[in-house]
């Protein structure tokens, strides 16, 4: 295991502030040096009186071999505290506690990192290979079909990997009539899917397989989308008036479809990976949540509420992904809060509440160890900020607070209000809605609260269904 980085800990502003306060309240001076004798904190000039110069730092005493109070990490002395015996002893115990906490956090982050690494590597790789999602590719293909082939309508149907049905995922055209999901083998599209062979049908009405929809079509080209020898869907191009599609049309059409097939397959793989990634993050969040049995299911509900709000706000795909991860991991910093405080069922003292209030910052620290998750940190660090600037940890206000955090704040508070606790029963759904409205514009961004109400109106937020 790599040696603990005492220098990093002692160069942090909060550590320095704590040590300054401690030394001041104890009316003492201490000097902290690394295992190799480099001064990391305090004024060591003239103390202790006679020591040779440090070999790398002429003019400063070499503390390396001088007995002080050891700072221990993983069974080894990583530094020393020098000063008045009694008071330095008190200070070293504080530093040792900080080192221990820091190491625990680091170990947890490393474990988390391992879990992520394999997935993020794949995730990044596929993202580089193909940045479009299935819908974007499908819409692009349809535009090409409509421009390049004489067609009034074009559509793409893909096999649903769970149900096995052929579903229309993108369509465009003057008279497009959305098709119900088809069983492979049903209708012309279904039979092309099953046979894996493209077809031209210039007179659909006389084809017994043709399922007449709301808008009749006359001529159709239908080609299978094949990926790795497997047919995964079909592409249709059709005209309202009779047309004479030729073998050349079919050849061109098939070339277009073959090119898109590879991209669609990649995009599907990427989307499945994304799902697996989010599932892993979820498992991690649930493991953390198990520490506090009273909040069971909280993470999942906060994510569901957050996503419902985001849909109403119409936020983009990238931000939506950020929101999903940030909402799942919003309370990850609670692993830095002691069980005594976290699991306390009676009223918290001010000091205990102050400890709880550190969890957004702990969350930021933990995530800073994990690559690729930097962009979700603001959502986690600021989820207890208030729109009017009275929140914590930084007292940010309005748009200074990341939108993701403003969304999580509403979702998190709503779930906290409606959940039972050992010392109180959760509020009813309607009362909690009233509370949200009351705090709109002060605690919460009114735009986000409005979106929550809109999502509720559109049946995207259901208390009982979301509760586990
Ligand atoms: Fe929180």
Task: Give an overview of the whole structure.
The protein is of the alpha+beta class. It has three domains: 6-114, Beta-Lactamase (2-Layer Sandwich), CATH 3.30.450; 134-269, Beta-Lactamase (2-Layer Sandwich); 290-466, Hypothetical protein af1432. It is built from 16 helices and nine strands. The chain has helices at 6-10, 13-25, 85-129, 134-148, 187-195, 247-289, 298-313, 317-328, 339-342, 350-356, 359-368, 377-381, 403-418, 429-438, 446-457, 463-466, and strands spanning 30-34, 39-41, 69-73, 76-83, 153-159, 166-173, 199-201, 219-227, 230-239. The protein has a five-stranded antiparallel beta sheet, with helices on both faces. The chain has a four-stranded antiparallel beta sheet with strand order 2-1-4-3. A hairpin with a 6-residue loop joins strand 5 (153-159) and strand 6 (166-173). The longest helix has 45 residues, at 85-129. The mean pLDDT is 82. Bound molecules: fe (ii) ion. Residues 330-331, 359, 383-384 line the site of fe (ii) ion.
């Amino acid at each position: 295991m790599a040696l603990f980085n005492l220098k990093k800990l002692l160069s942090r502003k909060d550590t320095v502030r704590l040590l300054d306060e401690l030394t001041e309240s104890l009316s003492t001076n201490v000097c902290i040096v690394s295992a190799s004798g480099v001064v990391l904190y305090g004024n060591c000039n003239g103390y202790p009186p006679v020591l040779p110069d440090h070999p790398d730092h002429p003019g400063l005493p070499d503390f390396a071999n001088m007995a002080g109070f050891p700072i221990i990490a993983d069974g080894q002395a990583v530094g020393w505290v020098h000063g008045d015996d009694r008071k330095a002893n008190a200070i070293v115990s504080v530093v040792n506690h900080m080192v221990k906490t820091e190491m625990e956090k680091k170990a947890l982050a490393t474990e988390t990192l391992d879990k992520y690494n394999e997935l993020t590597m794949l995730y990044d790789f596929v993202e580089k290979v193909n940045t479009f999602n299935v819908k974007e590719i499908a819409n692009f293909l349809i535009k090409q079909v409509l421009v390049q082939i004489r067609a009034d309508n074009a559509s793409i149907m893909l096999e649903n990997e769970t149900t096995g049905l052929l579903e229309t995922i993108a369509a465009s055209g003057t008279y497009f009539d959305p098709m119900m999901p088809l069983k492979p083998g049903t209708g012309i599209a279904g039979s092309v899917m099953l046979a894996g062979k493209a077809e031209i049908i210039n007179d659909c009405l006389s084809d017994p397989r043709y399922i007449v929809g709301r808008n009749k079509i006359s001529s159709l080209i239908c080609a299978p989308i094949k990926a790795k020898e497997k047919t995964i869907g079909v592409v249709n191009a059709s005209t309202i008036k009779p047309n004479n599609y030729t073998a050349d049309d079919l050849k061109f059409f098939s070339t277009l479809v073959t090119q898109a097939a590879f991209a669609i397959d990649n995009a599907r793989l990427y989307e499945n990976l994304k799902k697996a990634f989010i599932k892993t993050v979820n498992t991690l969040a649930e493991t953390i949540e198990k520490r506090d049995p009273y909040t069971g299911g909280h993470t999942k509900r906060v994510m569901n509420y957050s996503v419902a709000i985001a849909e109403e706000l119409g936020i983009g795909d990238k931000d939506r992904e950020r929101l999903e991860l940030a909402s799942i991991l919003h309370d990850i910093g609670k692993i830095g809060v002691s069980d005594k405080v976290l699991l306390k069922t009676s009223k918290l003292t001010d000091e205990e509440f102050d400890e709880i209030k550190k969890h957004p910052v702990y969350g930021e620290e933990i995530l800073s160890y994990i690559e690729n998750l930097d962009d979700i940190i603001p959502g986690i660090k600021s989820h207890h900020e208030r729109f009017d600037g009275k929140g914590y940890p930084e007292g940010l206000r309005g748009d200074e607070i990341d939108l993701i955090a403003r969304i999580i704040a509403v979702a998190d508070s709503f779930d906290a209000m409606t959940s039972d606790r050992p010392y109180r029963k959760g509020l009813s759904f309607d009362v909690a809605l009233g509370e949200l409205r009351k705090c709109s514009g002060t605690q919460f961004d009114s735009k986000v609260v409005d979106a929550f109400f809109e999502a509720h109106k559109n049946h995207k937020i259901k208390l009982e269904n979301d509760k586990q």
